[in-house]
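Q: Sequence in, structure out?
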Amino acid sequence: MDGSGLWLIGLGPGDLNQMSISAQSAAKSAEYRFLEGYTALLPLEEMNKLESVIGTWDLRMRSSVEHPEELLDLAQEHRVALLVVGDPLQATTHVDLQLRCLQRGIPCHVEHGISITTIVTGAAGLQSYRFGRQCTFAYPYGDYLPTSPLEVILENKERGLHTLALLDLDPTGMGEGNQIPMTPQIAVDVLLKMASKLEVDVDDWLLVLCSDMGTKDARVAVGTTQDIASVSGGRIHCLLIPAELHDVEEAALARW
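A: Exactly. Output:
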């Protein structure tokens, strides 16, 4: 890791043991290390271990990453590592950092990591090439609740494609801390409210809940909206909404 620049480093899905050797080496060699804490969350147990794995670090939230002048000023003269749970280029915010580095002539390097989007499809038993567009269930803000996630799901279903729905981490929408990852119960409530707005019956839909994937606490649950809403425990969740299942997929989901 020679010279100054910005290193975008993937930590993997939430278990530091799954961080690549190359990523660990790049992080250890940095003069400044910042954990990006708003597009994804590192479990507290792993966060407490992080310093012993890569060295001292500071937390950076949304405003300092989306307005990265301080970060880029440092990278102009020093080796700076931005640590991201999952893969660092999964979020467009980090692609924007690459472009800003290019504009300022700052070297930008990427150490990829395992992402939730590469884990959940096969881990649950669905065929990865049968997935359509992803969507995100956002927390409602007062009476405002966008229906675009359900519209994406319906479009995918019409084309015979499954959907990965990521769940919001921050009820404030500000990305400045105190995140509260969306629970299965709230996710189902959001789905039902969207369905009511669009006059769609989703009560009997088959849903797949994936919790803490890529960690020792990984868990998969399959059921209707009522079944999934009753699931408790876990930290970070996402939903898979299958289209019509192939025989192998149906047998694979039956394991759960």
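DSSP finds ten helices and ten strands in the chain.
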